[in-house]
Design a protein that fits this description.
The chain is 56% helix and 0% strand. The chain has 246 residues and is an all-alpha fold. It has a domain of 111 residues.
């Protein structure tokens, strides 16, 4: 008998860590492949469950936040910065200019034909209103210097104005619509130029208590009166009889 072989005493070499990891992954795939697949009745695979979606609240864009903040703040008054540092003269002339803007807007876009239609039964047409306002700008122009130098008001009462309305319309009746608008602009430019030539001081001369300041405010009020009536007529309303001087 041959003698039995003695063990050599050498241990089998261990697999490297990477090989062991690869073997584990392979075994896991094989195990997953053997698992039964969930199927619907009829042999179809059941759909995989989708993860639930989380609702995320969107933040407001910066522009929207700015607008929301602006709505909360009170609106600034027009020309607030300029008016805060304005002199008494500036305020008086500024109001006069704004009143004329209102009147100009009231006749903006009118044709020669529409300017001949009376604003109400027995009332003037827009062309006649424009000529009327022109007439009083023209009549008040010489009084600018007189009110400043002498401190006296023009001797025009309401009765005088009403009496002159008819005679002024007869005098100016031959002017067409385009001429009437041009005359209105020229007369106001001359009036503003005369007022601007006067000094700012003393400030009291530009207040309503002084004849000069009174004159400026009367002309502003006159423009607004007729601007309001023209706008009302264009909107389809009937001018108020209590506010009428034609």
């Amino acid at each position: 008998m041959s003698p039995a072989k003695k063990p050599s005493g050498k241990r089998p070499a261990r697999k490297s860590a990477s090989k062991q990891a690869a073997a584990r992954r392979s075994a896991a795939r094989k195990s997953a492949a053997k698992r039964p697949v969930a199927r619907r009745p009829g042999g179809k695979r059941a759909p995989k469950k989708k993860p639930a979606l989380k609702l995320v609240r969107r933040s407001k864009p910066r522009a929207a936040k700015a607008r929301a903040g602006a709505r909360k703040r009170p609106a600034a008054k027009p020309f607030a910065g300029a008016l805060a540092t304005a002199t008494a003269k500036d305020l008086a002339l500024f109001d006069l200019v704004r009143a004329r803007v209102e009147l100009s807007a009231a006749v903006q876009g009118m044709t020669a034909a529409s300017a001949e239609v009376p604003i109400a039964d027995g009332k003037w047409s827009p062309r006649q209103v424009v000529l009327h306002v022109y007439y009083w700008d023209r009549e008040m122009l010489p009084w600018v210097e007189k009110t400043y130098q002498r401190g006296i008001r023009p001797p025009h009462t309401m009765d005088d104005i009403l009496a002159e309305n008819e005679s002024s319309q007869r005098e100016l009746a031959g002017h067409d619509w385009e001429t009437a608008k041009r005359m209105l602009q020229q007369a106001r430019e001359a009036l503003i130029e005369a007022l601007q030539s006067l000094p700012e001081e003393p400030a009291e001369i530009w207040t309503s208590e002084h004849p000069l300041g009174w004159l400026v405010r009367i002309l502003s009020k006159h423009d607004r009166h007729h601007a309001g009536r023209l706008k009302q007529a264009r909107a389809g309303g009937t001018p108020s009889e209590t506010a009428s001087h034609t």
